[in-house]
Write a structure and sequence with these properties.
By secondary structure, the chain is α+β, with helices and mostly antiparallel strands. It has 19 helices and 22 strands. Strands 5-4-8-2-1-11-14-13 form an eight-stranded mixed sheet. A five-stranded mixed sheet has the order 16-17-18-20-19, covered by helices on one side. The longest helix has 21 residues.
């Protein structure tokens, strides 16, 4: 039996949801979802007298048990992180293996984190409002009463009434995705019932809904594949979205199947969200949410899709038991993502991604220097501790490097990949702990390897990787630098020129970057930022004049440029531009709601001009997602409750 999830008040170890039937109405005027959630539960032990659900900011209107209304339900006191536990007492105790249906009538409220209702002015088309959810890590309880722990995997079905097209993290039953938008009815006026089914068990954090003026365009699927794939977006973004993702998405998914086994969810669609979406992507089954910052116009950022679809096996398929083991999701996904880069592109591309990830990891470890427990892969969360407080690149890149170290220690991909397939086959559909994973690793090589493999595993410092803090990795990693070297060489030339006082004598041209792709340009900027001594202000003015980084539409490049210059003597010159960019008060016209960008840029602005950072954030706070609002406020030392 797993240790109990420290972020859930539910009694899932005694009784567990197997299926939920949702009957919802999306009310855009009042910005709520109303309806019912009917749980099909099964007792796991004898003498179960109640079920306890996680809820947060939900208004509970009534409860039925096996079809009969009951009065003996109660909401417990509100916990600041975990919300209010909903206790439903049964008319009679249940024995192990027996089932019960619990129907809860409720509505969401504006105080929850999971749902973000956008005004029409916050959308691309500026004609209709928009709704999207974000339930990871523990916000599904804002959307519905659930046992909100990844240790519980459930199927679900839903009927959703809405005047705007609705998407869920499930397979659509009706109306058909490739039929007329909104079943041919008038968008924004006529109510349509959308029905969905998710037959593959998933954790509650993968429940997802989006609704808005959305259109669909299918991708061409490789011959012999049984799944479907396409992209959803607002009409104004459809051409650019389809162009950006249509070439690569299905070939990426086919490559992942070759490595990890069959894709189980039947549909792999992308939804391009409005800019307040706080992540690069969210791996909701059947419907990956992606940020519009990926629409670079050159397909240079589509590798993010590799990461999200890889979650279909690592995270959505094999799931962490609870937040302490989150690295099993993100570390494995990042590791496999980079293996796929090697398979799809080249070993050099795997190496370049590792270089970029390593820089992000070092930044994350430094950020937690005063909170060293968040530098660990396995975090011992206290009861009721907010897992979002630990959100960083650590589980992604420390985890991926750990698996890379194991791969190399065992003898390379030809030894490790057969194990990966066995790992997927063994635990697909389950929620596991780090100890379960480690035991299986040893068991596999005891059965399929030799004494040398066990000796190699025993040579690994497991405690250092899993349970110790630090600003560096336990092992100094080496990566393929074939693609990084040209970028590093150009950065080194700039750094070596820092003592040249006559700018006219600098030997740089605007064509210096022509041979570098977007990821190499990112490495170039990161290399410059890594030096202990910043370039002089005059150099950076010339640098920007040549390369135009302060005007580029690429969020990845602009973000790294501001990270570089806001640490330099030129910071005061560029700080207003950085503030304008992060809130969209520039030529881009959109906020940078992705936390990868907004959080570090606000932190950098704060170090240069605290008043500007605070004023800028306060003026535009509501444009950001509630998760981002909370963490930016934390970064700036602000109390959201007093703002």
């Amino acid at each position: 039996m797993h240790e109990a999830d420290p972020t859930s008040q539910s009694n899932y170890l005694q009784i567990t949801t197997k299926h939920i039937t949702f009957d919802w109405t999306v009310d855009f005027d009042n910005k709520v979802i109303t309806g019912t959630a009917t749980h099909d539960l099964i007792a796991k032990v004898d003498e179960v007298s109640e079920v306890i659900f996680d809820t947060s900011y939900l208004h509970i209107e009534g409860v039925k048990v096996d079809g009969d209304a009951v009065q003996n339900f109660r909401l417990g006191p509100k916990h600041a992180v975990m919300g209010s536990a909903l206790h439903v007492t049964f008319p009679r105790t249940l024995s192990s293996g027996s089932s019960v249906l619990v129907e809860i009538t409720y509505r969401t409220t504006a105080n929850g984190t999971a749902l973000q209702f956008l005004e029409k002015e916050q959308t691309q088309g500026k004609t209709f409002p928009f709704l999207f959810s974000q339930c990871q890590p523990i916000y599904a309880r804002d959307l519905a009463p659930v046992q909100d722990t990844p240790s519980v995997k459930l199927t679900y079905s839903a009927s959703v009434r809405s005047v705007l097209p609705v998407l869920l993290s499930a397979r659509r039953i009706s109306p058909p995705s490739d039929g007329p938008a909104h079943d041919g009815k008038i968008i924004g006026k006529d109510e349509v019932v959308y029905t969905y089914d998710q037959p593959t068990p998933i954790p509650s954090y993968l429940l997802a809904i989006a609704a808005g003026n959305l259109q669909y365009q299918p991708f061409q699927v490789p011959d012999g594949k049984q799944w479907k794939s396409g992209v959803w977006s607002e009409p104004e973004l459809m051409d650019s979205s389809f162009w950006e993702f249509s070439r690569d998405t299905t070939r990426f998914l086919a490559a992942a199947e070759n490595l990890a086994g069959p894709y189980r969810f039947g549909v792999y669609d992308l939804l391009v969200l409005p800019p307040s979406f706080p992540y690069g992507g969210m791996e909701n089954p059947c419907l990956t949410f992606v940020t519009p910052t990926l629409l670079a116009g050159d397909r240079s950022l589509t590798d993010v899709v590799i990461h999200e679809l890889t979650h279909s096996w690592f995270g959505n398929g094999i799931t962490h038991a609870h937040a302490s083991h989150f690295w099993l999701n993100e570390g494995w996904t990042t590791y496999i993502e980079r293996v796929l880069l090697q398979i799809i592109h080249s070993p050099a591309h795997r190496g370049l991604s590792s270089v970029i990830g390593y820089k992000a990891l070092l930044d994350a470890l430094a950020l937690f220097e005063d909170k060293p427990k968040y530098q660990k892969l396995v975090i011992d969360f206290g009861y009721g501790e907010d897992p979002d407080s630990a959100f960083s690149r650590v589980p992604y890149d420390k985890g991926a490097n750990f698996l890379l170290h194991i791969e190399r220690t065992l003898g390379g991909l030809e030894v490790f990949l057969p194990y990966v397939k066995d790992y997927v086959t063994t635990y697909m559909g389950q929620s596991i702990t780090t100890e379960t994973w480690k035991n299986h690793l040893y068991t596999y090589f005891q059965k399929n390897g030799n004494e040398g493999h066990i000796k190699a595993l025993n040579s690994i410092n497991w405690d250092a990787w899993l349970h110790q803090s630090g600003l560096r990795l336990p092992v100094e990693m080496e990566y393929d630098l074939t693609l990084a070297n040209p970028a590093n060489a150009l950065a080194d030339r700039w750094y070596e020129s820092r003592h040249t006082t006559d700018i006219s004598k600098l030997d740089f041209k605007d064509s210096d970057l022509d041979s570098l792709d977007a990821n190499q340009r990112a490495v170039f900027l990161e290399r410059l930022e890594s030096y202990k001594e910043s370039l002089p202000a005059g150099h950076l003015f010339h640098f920007d004049k040549l390369y135009g980084f302060s005007k580029t539409l690429s969020a990845e490049i602009r973000f790294r440029f501001y990270t570089l210059v806001l640490k330099s003597q030129a910071a005061m010159y560029f700080v207003q531009g950085a503030a304008n960019w992060v809130i969209g008060a520039d030529a881009t016209g959109v906020i940078k709601g992705r936390m990868k960008f907004c959080r570090p840029v606000f932190r950098a602005i704060f170090k240069v001009n605290p008043d500007l950072a605070i004023t800028t954030f306060r003026q535009t706070q509501t444009q950001f997602h509630p998760i981002a609002q909370s963490l930016i406020a934390q970064d700036l030392g602000l109390d959201l409750a007093r703002m």
